[in-house]
Amino acid sequence: MVGIVGYGTYIPRHRIKVEAIAKVWGADAPSYERGLLLKEKSVPTPDQDTITMSVEAAKNALRRAQIDPSEIGAVYVGSESHPYAVKPSGTVLAEAIGATPEVHCADFEFACKAGTEGMFVCIGLVQAGLIRYGLGVGADTSQGAPGDALEYSAAAGAAAFIFGDDKVVAEVEETYAYMTDTPDFWRREHQFYPEHGGRFTGEPAYFKHIMGAARGIMAKANATAADFTYVIFHQPNGKFPQRVGKMLGFTKTQIEPGWLSPTLGNTYSGSSPMGLASTLDIAKAGDRILLVSYGSGAGSDAFIFRVTERIDEVRDVAPRTRDQLDNNKVYIDYGTYAKFRGKIRKAT
Amino acid sequence: MSSPRYWREIPQRYRLEAGKCTDCGNIHFPPRLVCSACSGRQFETVKLSDEGTVFTYTIIRVAPSQFVDQAPYAVGIVELDDGVRISAQIADVDLDALEIGQRVRIEFRLIQNEGEAGIICYGYKCVPA
After folding, report:
1. Geometric angle at alpha carbon B92, from B90 and B96, rounded to 5°
2. CA dist A291 → A124, A276, A277, B72 (Å)
3. Which of A115, A210, A327, B17 would give a disulfide with B11, using CB separation of 3.0 to 4.6 Å?
């Protein structure tokens, strides 16, 4: 059966606290901390981008998969912050891991769900017998406009998943997609920062599509919330995944292992895939996991996984996600953050 | 760095591919046409270890123009676990705590941008293990 053969994540070491951002803009830090359940977020250094984080996450996935990278037949990087406007991130990634030249490559872009799109397509290609292994990556170094609400959450991170039908650590039991034209968040060509519809990003966007995808896949699989050991929803902040989980009948215990956003922020295309990786880090054989991504624009991809016994062999072959999140952190002030993120206009 | 030169060095910059002399086993990074130890001309491609120790280092405080925003930063010679020494930037490190003998590992990083519109050059740096 088709499933995840290897998985890996990468989180930059630098962090900025919500209070350090709020102080600069005269905002009330506790309202973000309590209202959106956000404490701090990851920050990439100037020498880290979607490509570099994708490579590190993919290397961790390869360590767990223990396959020959030249057997990877497809490399898909999902991101809204591809370093090049024209030249796929996947070209550099595939070259860096040694998957070239017999490999299909494309970049995906769908706000925060581009990562699960690549995973979705890899599953289909493996199932069709067109490729032996497929690599789907979700990675972003997202930008929020200075002073905008998004600046408190837009973070950096990557997750990589290799799919195949042997050496599987989590079988794919079901997939489902739910998508409409909903303009809740966008970035026009040549614009540096995205725009969003404020509260419109909630009810008709995030909640409608996640609920639609979750209910759809559960109906397809004839399952209820109680049939899953763990669940991961997209995490634009700390609060939304908890609230949508409650609305769908899931408990905090089911959400907890993959709930990274309070100290990670929103890693956009990396967000729910990193939650899945963190959940696999502690899962046991037989556990059933529901993953529902969300991308503005707007749509959700949903997956049901069943963990196999091979998980015990691979989980400690590469760094665990929660360890990367909690250890070796370097806190920076807003000035350093602004420099790192290219927010300071310099003389040319 | 011109695009063709960068492209030629991709196997070394991305994947640390070295040439191992099939006669005497000496490893050359970057690969050579003739072995400096035995003058052999046959090599096999090997991938260098991605962990090692700091052999020596210096702190760059007055940087070339394309690295000026990163100063001060550390550049070191790192002895990888297979005995090969490479020179690399040591990133994500507290410069006051950096010391010879410290364990480091290879990470894939952006090395430099060719101005605002040119190619983006990637390669290896070392970070604390």
Report:
1. 80
2. 17, 7, 11, 43
3. B17
| pLDDT tens digit sequence for A246-284 | 999 999 999 999 999 999 999 999 999 999 999 999 999
| Interval A37-81: pLDDT, tens | 999 999 999 999 999 999 999 999 999 999 999 999 999 999 999
Indicate the pairing of strand A288-292 with strand B43-47: unpaired
Residue A272 main-chain phi, psi, to 5 deg: -70, -35
Domain ranges of chain B: 1-47, 49-129
The single residue listed with the structure tokens 């961790």 is A60
Counted across chains A and B, CB pairs separated by less than 8 A come out at: 44
Phi/psi region, residue B39 (left: phi>0; alpha: psi -120 to 50; beta: rest), is left
CATH 2.60.120.260 assigned to B49-129:
no
A339 and chain B in contact, CB less than 8 A: yes
Half-sphere exposure of A249 (CA within 13 A, CB side): 9
Domains, chain A, with CATH or none: 3-169+320-340 (3.40.47.10), 170-307 (3.40.47.10)
The helix/strand/coil state of B44 is strand
